Amino acid sequence: MYGRSLTTGTLVLALLILAVQPPALAQEKKAGAGRSKAATAASYKAYFKKWFDKYYSSLYYAKSLNDIRPYFTDNYIKGWDTLSDGQKVEELARLKRFYVGDSKLEKLSFGTDGSSAEVELTGALVVDEKRGYGRCTYKMQKEARGWLINSSSRQAEYTKVIW
Q: pTM for this one?
C-alpha cells in the first residue's frame, strides 16, 4: 500500500511539472526568437551598410558604367546596353548624384517573399554643386549574384554647410 501512494505521488508531481513547464518553455522560445530576430535584423543592417559603403566607393571612383555594373540587377543593366556612349556618360553622372557621403542606414525592410528589400540611407548629398543633406531609397533584389540594386530614388535639400 505504501508503494502505491508513492507511485501516485510521483505521478501527481510529474503532471504538475508538465503543467507548469510548457508555458515557461514557450516563453523562453519566444524570448529566444525575439533575440534571434533582433540579431538577424542587426546582421542584415550591418551587411547592407557594408554593401553600400563598398558600392559608394566604387561609384565615387567610377569612370564608366562598367565600374558599377556588379551592383545592379540584370534587368537594370539591360537598359544600359541600349544607350549611346554619350548617354552612358550622362547615366553615370545621374547615378553619381545618388552618392551619399557619411551615410547612415535609416530603414531596412524586406518583401514578403524575402527576395526583395528596401534600403533607405541618409547623409551628405550634392545639390546644385553644393553640399546638401538627403536620403536615397534603394529597391534591392536578391539574384544569383547576391543583393543588387533594382531601382533608386533620391530626396535632397541644400544646406549652408560648406564641404
A: 0.72
